[in-house]
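Reopening this one. Same input as before:
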Amino acid sequence: MIYFVTVNYYSTEQIARLLQSIKNTTNIPYQFIVINNSPEDAAIYDLAGDETLIIDAGENLGFGGGCNLGIDWVYKQDPQGIVWLINPDTVIKDTPDGAVAFFDSYPEVSILGTTVWEPTGKLWFGGGQFLAATGAILEKNLLSENRLTAAYVPCDWVTGCSLLINLRNFQNCPRFDCQYFLYYEDFDFCRRYDREGHLIAVTDRLAVIHYPSSIINRDLYQKYNHSTYSYLLTMQRYASQWVLGWRFARLLGNALLLLLTKPAVARGKLDGLFRYMKSF
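Same output, byte for byte:
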């Protein structure tokens, strides 16, 4: 069975659109789970129904923390199930029905990314690559580069915008690291489980359309605070100390340059840098 998990942060209208797209395209049993990271958003409870469960987080746990609530719930109910983490600002492109058949045919895949398209028809995500020597975290069209004839292409990471977890491959419930409040938690999730021997892959047999939301840009200070901290944490874990130092210096220099022209962005980056230094 497929369990869709999405995290709400004042996104009720987008989630209603996503849910409707699932209802319109799905012909197999599913459960739609909303983790409510914004308790004041009472309208989200209007979506509750037989196939839609609302779980109140009590506070904003961030993306990874919210996903953990949903994954934990599913794992307790059905440790052989398929979890489909999906952003509120997406809709199903064709049909999600092939997800069950995919994992039946390719049970070796533990974490699967779908293609993600923009409303214009441009590919937004087609696979992730990591260059440890430089710390570069890249989004690439691996499907096109590999002239996909097989069902999937192995890759370094996939986006949490549309990410499937094959629970039957995990002896314990897979979880995001809550040190990541926002940004790079999907990358860390993939790299950690890759180190444990799990196969990470991307496919074009499942797809979503992504309508970028403006919610995250309402507070530029918080956006760059979290992204800067999470990026440095990621470099510490997966790149060399030299790369970490180089990336830290580049972020610091860029933040100082932006103080006069983009003060909110600059302050967010500086506080992210200082928060990282205080943590280690």
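So the earlier flakiness isn't reproducible anymore. For the record, The mean pLDDT is 94.
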